[in-house]
Structures are given as C-alpha cells and as structure tokens.
Amino acid sequence: MGRAFEFRKGRKMKRWSAMAKAFTRIGKDIVMAVKEGGPNPEANSRLRAVIQNAKSANMPKENVERAIKKATEKDTANYKEQLFEGYAPHGIALLIETATDNNNRTVANIRSYFNKCNGTLGTQGSVEFMFDHTCNFRIPNNNIDIEEMELEFIDFGAEEIFADEDGILIYAPFESFGAIQKELESRGIEILSSGFERIPQITKKLTEAEMADVEKLIEKIEEDDDVMNVYHTMEE
C-alpha cells in the first residue's frame, strides 16, 4: 500500500464528523460549482461531483435542489477559495483550505487562531510545496480486479488504487480529475464520491503532549465556518 492508503487510513472518521457542518460545506461547494459552470449537472462536471458527495454524506435531495436553485439567484454570495499556510507548534506545517464571501474576516480569524495557539501564519508558498495535491474517487467494489484496473487507469493519471470496507478508492494527481471522471462515467461505473486532498510528503512524529498542542490549534481552525479542510505534517 502507498502513501495515499496510509493517509486515508489515518484520517478516516476525522473529516466532516459533524453532519450539519458537512452540509454547510457541501452547500458552499454547490454555490461555487453553479457560479462556475451553471446549474445543469449534465453540462457541469464539478456540480456532478458535488452532488455525488452530497449523496455520500446522506444530504437530502431536496436540500441539494434548494442549494442549486439558490446559487442561481443574483443576490447569493459568491464564495472564493483561499489557501492559508503556516506552522503549528513543534514545527508542524499546516495547509488550510477555505471558501469565503468575506476575505478580511477569514484572514483575521485564521491569524487569531495561530496567535492564540503559539503557531505562525506563513506567507504564500511557505508550506504548500510539502504536500502533494491529489484527486480521489470512490466507486463500488463489484468484484473489480484492482490490478487490472490499475493498469488500465494509469493512462488517465491514476497512481494508486486500493480497496477498503466502503469500496474502491482511486488516487491521482489533482490535474487528472477530469480525465478519470470522464472515463469512469463512459464505462458506466458509479462514482460514490470524489474530491481533492493534500497528502504530506513527509510527516513528523510527536509526543502525546506535543500532539495535544497541535490538535488544539487544528480544532480551533476546523470550527471556523469558512474552513473547508485542514492538512498537516504530523504523524497520526
């Protein structure tokens, strides 16, 4: 198993643990997808992916339809994606993905979390290079030969394919998302969910006390409504 497998295993059950928060994040994703490519999922691959993720998170269909309709209204806020970089205590790099309709508020909030927890907010590019930007797809495990699938999907950018109790996961570089999505759809393979992640190239082992310091900062950041994902280089 490769780095993607270990990363996924370490983060399992940690992401989007609160359902209300998950729905809020998916709602933002819907708004950004509709603003970018329109409200028709057939013509908007990003929106198709978000709808798949909404189903995976058990978000009611009427909530999804309501969010799409709201996103088409002129007075609906347009969220902008912004990346924050910095260091938690004990030299742990943090990469924070946000979606905000008020950049000044988000910057002030993120900076305050770092200051209160003995971290350091960095400049653009200060830690991003420490993470590989990847895309992933989850599909049903319908007796698929994983080795054969790996050989076939290498041409579309796939780097790692493995099975877990919830199906089969495909990992590839960020820029391969469109090609893999199109190929899965052309083969009639159901996409249960898809998304993007940043996998640390190197991780650092900490003591329990040091981990608690880092987790205190991460928890504060994750509680912010503008924050979508937080990635770090701490060994889990």
TrEMBL record:
InterPro entries: Integrase-like_N, TACO1_YebC-like_2nd/3rd_dom, TACO1_YebC_N, Transcrip_reg_TACO1-like, Transcrip_reg_TACO1-like_dom3, YebC-like. Keywords: Cytoplasm, DNA-binding, Transcription, Transcription regulation. Transmembrane segments: none annotated. Residues 4-73 form the TACO1/YebC-like N-terminal domain. Coiled coil: none annotated. Residues 79-234 form the TACO1/YebC-like second and third domain. It is found in: Cytoplasm. It comes from the Bacteria. GO terms for molecular function: DNA binding. Pfam families: TACO1_YebC_N, Transcrip_reg. Belongs to the TACO1 family. This is Probable transcriptional regulatory protein WFZ85_08695. It comes from Flavobacterium aureirubrum.
